[in-house]
Amino acid sequence: MGGQRKDLPGGAAKRERRRRPRWGRAGVAAVLVAALAAAAFAMLRPAVQADLRPIAHQNILLVTIDTLRADALGAYGGRARTPALDRLANEGVRFDFAHAHAVVTLPSHASILTGQYPFQHGLRDNSGFRLRPGSRTAATLLHAAGYATAAFLGAFPLHSRFGLNQSFDLYDDHFGETRAPTEFAMPERPATEVVGLARRWIVNRARQSADRPWFVWVHVFDPHAPYKPPAPYNAEYASQLYYGEVAATDAALAPLFDDVREGNRPVLVVVTGDHGEALGDHGEISHGLFAYESTLRVPLIVAELGGERRDRPVPARGEVSAVPARHIDILPTILDAVGLPAPADLPGRSLVAAAERRKRSAPRPTYFEAMSGMLNRGWAPLTGVLADRGKYIDLPIPERYDLARDGEERSNLAGRAPQRDRELLAALQGFRPVLPGQRLAENPAAAAELLALGYISGDAPRRAHYTEADDPKRLVDLDRAVHDAVNAFGEGRAGDAVRIYQGVISRRPDMAIAYQHLAFIEWQRGEADPAVELLRGAIRTGVTDPRILTELGGYLTETGRVEEAIRLLEPLAIGAAADADALNSLGIAYARNGRREDARRIFQRVVSVNPDSSIPLENLGLLALERGDVERAQAYFEHAIRVDPRSSRAHAGAGNVALRRGDRRTAVAEWMRAVQLDPLNADALYNAGTVLARDGNLDEARPYLERFLRVAPASVYGKDLREVEAILNRATRR
Ligand SMILES: [Zn+2]
Questions:
Q1: Does domain 35-281+302-358 have CATH number 3.40.720.10?
Q2: Whole-model pTM above 0.85?
Q3: Distance between Cα 137 and ligand 1 center (Å)
């Protein structure tokens, strides 16, 4: 290293090489975490008469609380202090035996909104699926009936890219798309923020167009892991933080319920959880693998507030219904409560009559499933049925429980009364549930390309039959290992995480999620080739998850093997339901290959189906910047910031635009903002640090440059790392 500062040309701004913001790819970590992802009921006496009746055009507030066990709430005899929800239960009807049909967020919410079972609406897991355009949902039906519609979402699994945004006038999913690459954390925002947005919208509605009824959906994510309740709940629930999250969520929702309670217009309020949380039940840590009552049973509270009920005293005790209630019943209930006819082919039924005890009909069986084990672990698919208090779980090792006597599902009765087993199995088969296909088999073009690229030979291995060795009960300890690995990585023990994943893969060589995580860690550690080889090996082993292909395509692009990436990704872009992540990856590959027009078309396509996503806008901004169209680039980045004010990449891009315009102050300010939003945004760190250094502000530059050295992966930033080291060395010597 020469002592002269000849590579710090100062005024020669033209020669400055700037790192563009990274091409935006959808959150790898978010998708990964999405994939990670019992109480006895009392016999109830009727209490006060329920006060639910149809009111034409009343407003509707649907609140879904993520990861909420029924038995967490005070009203359900639970451990968390939940005065707001308990009061709501006293004002309305609490269903004590309510169930979801899926145990992960996206499929479960799709059932709530469409009134359909997962095999009908088609969403079987948190990623890799998208609700078909033109689907019928609560929003499409109510919007067509004249309702203004708005949704306020708490976390990534309900991002507009998954298609639940259809017919919402406003679908506010701005929880940011950036995240730290050192932890598998999902972008989310706290309930207080989500509730605040919803309250503001409702107040403005009342002012602007009081005549038009509204349908508002509020989704809060806080009880989902990791459990980090705010004060004072963190102290009060120090030994059971999950319940602290539930209590904090209740407090966050209280002002929303107060608002509608005091409003002039009647409001139908429906509150439920999308699924519960295992908390160790049957060896499961969180949710998604099994369908025991700890994750399948949910709270369901229905109440009518506001309007003429405004000043009515709160009953000391609300109606409690033991009628089996299902998520698919929520849509017919809402339609019934506002006097709209329910489409005849909906499998659910209104609960208004059940709540009012106007009639007693025989309980109908309900279907449930857990497909994450099959879809991202290669395990046996789980389907099951609940008929009255009998529960049958169809797995290679079948299970049957009598929930009336054994609410914690301790005693597996399968095989003890074969006639009862057969009845329940017949009820399950009566649903004619279709399993999600092997995803690759559904995409012959992708399979053909993998064959041509030599990734697979002949037809990809395909599992036709699952044995007891594939039963999640036998494999749940692997899931614990994945959790341990995630924690190890989050705590900076990447080596430990790698060893755990290698152990998991040697035991289950078809476990997609382990390959995904491991490749991601290798990549972050700068081990680009091992990451690529690992994913190629996964495909050879028969892992057919398109997310693996998408990831591999991204890594190939980053390491310069663009042609191969394009061949791999193009088949995934076929069809209207193509995954946004796959499209983005393909667009980036085109851009890297100089095919800017193809890239632009792909990004535009993502914008047209995901107008609320900032990533494709940022990528369009980068394309414009590449061809020197600063005006257009600025417009795209500004649009991206409007769509997601917390996008680090959008701010980083705005910084690059400002630099092109010669406005170094604004440029640095934007990059600093980008770093503030995502402390691991290596490009923003590099740009802020090097521009400050060139302008002689070494003290200000130093933290950015030092942080860059710590966080930028060598696989992508090798040359920049050496340059930054040199700058810091010279600075030290002076
Ligand atoms: Zn959820």
A1: yes
A2: no
A3: 19
